[in-house]
Design a protein that fits this description.
The protein has 14 helices and three strands. The longest helix has 29 residues.
Length: 468
């Protein structure tokens, strides 16, 4: 099995040495400037801007490092950075329980300096090849904060927060050799045209989660049997709605498929930054929102890849072209059938996009305490922005998009969305919880009538997001 070389993370021994070097690192002053999202708004009246800024820096760095990689890997790195920033901020500000750490920050320390430092150190440990641009961004961030003891204390605490996260992630299974061993047979995944790439990033299926107890904790039941009516129903929908040519899709449905055909994790970051800025969330609230969303997305990817590796179900393009081998009288083969979108190189069940979207939507409703998420989601592919007022609308559009793009069965989409929802609901019951007056985490259990409604995961009722 072909494996691409691990691109970013140093091994354990190098990581320890790197942390020691970081501890002695002085503030870097470089003359070459890079873009600084939110730099103009990073003022004493908006300390949360530094969290948004470093989320944007992380997004740009991850995108540059991974390129157009058709896997969920981006969510992993976003989760690591966001959790480290969360600890750096709430360890000083209080209000929320620390993630797997007991060290509170020093009095009168700058949480903005701590946030920038934690993000910088985790990004640098993960992407050392981008040291110059990361260091330059850090120098700019720190220079914009008032010099003095508060900033220095914040820098020191941010370094410790990053070191703690790096320590927690040692030996977590990144880039492990995880083979996909299933032999080609009816219903079993195999490389798909046009590139016929092998199953990408199989190690994600065995990565130690950030929050969950194991990758299979929320593994759904399997896909429908090839001989079942449910399989035939999925097949017929895909064949007519997901085809590249001759489809009965409307223009709006085609635009939806294209809208969600790019990097969903990147779309989420932009939308959450916008939400946090428009609602003027404080630095602790902003750090918590990103941590809850991105840590849930991290474990949603692990959950999706676990199911993909475990079930190994074939993609629509294979199922439709080889339908004469499936033993189902309700399906008819079309050897020339092509999907609207290029099929990513990993199995159908469950869909990564919808698992992540389900986790993100549930994390948002859990943190915000309402199903009204007020999210403006952009798409580089279509050049448009959609407004989503409810989590259900977002989930439904992502589910539909993967069917209408011809790359996932509806069953794989809905099962993924429901698994992602369960991941995030469990995560918020155990992590990122508000603190009571005595400093202990508040009970996550609230009466059912006061809990946000669960996302519907593809219920066709209601209206979707509006294009702007």
């Amino acid at each position: 099995m072909h494996r691409e070389p691990p691109p970013v993370v140093p091994p354990r021994s190098r990581a320890r040495a790197f942390r020691c070097a970081l501890a002695a690192l002085a503030l870097v002053t470089l003359t070459a400037a890079t873009g600084r999202p939110d730099a103009d708004t990073r003022t004493a009246s908006d300390p949360a801007a530094v969290v948004r800024e470093w989320n944007a820096i992380a997004t740009d760095t991850i995108k540059a490092a991974l390129g157009p990689r058709p896997s969920g890997q981006a969510a992993i790195w976003q989760g690591f950075v966001s959790v480290a920033v969360y600890n750096a901020v709430v360890g000083i500000e209080g209000r929320y329980a620390l993630y797997e750490w007991r060290e509170r920050g020093p009095a009168n320390a700058s949480s903005a300096a701590a946030a920038a430092t934690a993000a910088h150190d985790v990004l640098l440990a993960s992407f050392p090849a981008f040291k110059e641009r990361i260091d330059t961004s850090y120098a700019n961030s720190i220079a914009a904060l008032p010099a003095g003891q508060a900033r220095d204390r914040g820098v020191g605490y941010g370094k410790r927060a990053a070191a703690r996260l790096i320590e927690l992630r040692e030996g977590d299974g990144r880039f492990a050799d995880v083979p996909f061993t299933a032999s080609p047979a009816p219903g079993v995944w195999r490389p798909t045209p046009p590139a016929f790439q092998p199953f990408i990033d199989t190690w994600l299926a065995r990565l130690r989660p950030l929050l969950l107890t194991s990758p299979r904790q929320f593994r759904p039941g399997g896909p429908p049997a090839l001989s079942s009516a449910a399989y035939a129903e999925d097949f017929r929908e895909l064949k007519t709605m997901g085809a590249k040519t001759g489809s009965v899709r409307s223009a709006r449905q085609t635009e939806t498929a294209l809208f969600f055909s790019g990097n969903l994790v990147e779309q989420v970051q932009t939308a959450v930054r916008d939400h946090a800025a428009r609602h003027r969330l404080g630095i602790a609230e902003t750090a918590r929102l990103f941590a809850a969303v991105n840590a849930s997305a991290t474990d949603a990817v692990v959950t999706a890849w676990d199911a993909k590796l475990h079930y190994g179900s074939w993609r629509p393009i294979t199922a439709i072209r080889l339908a004469d081998t499936d033993g189902n009288p309700g399906t008819t083969a079309d050897p020339a059938w092509e999907p609207l979108l290029v099929t990513p190189p990993h199995p159908d069940y469950v869909a990564g996009h919808t698992t992540v979207a389900g986790a993100v939507a549930r994390a948002l409703t859990g943190v915000l305490g309402t199903s009204r998420i007020d999210l403006r989601v952009p798409s580089e592919i279509t050049g448009t922005t959609r407004f989503y007022g409810s989590a259900d609308d977002l989930d439904r559009d992502v589910v539909d998009a993967r069917v209408w793009g011809g790359v996932h069965s509806r069953t794989a989409d809905v099962a993924g969305c429901r698994a992602g929802t369960r991941v995030a609901a469990w995560a918020l019951d155990h992590y990122f919880r508000p603190l009571a007056e005595d400093g202990t985490p508040r009970s996550p259990r609230t009466p059912r009538q006061h809990r946000p409604a669960e996302p519907a995961c593809g219920d066709p009722s209601g209206a979707g997001g509006s294009v702007k």
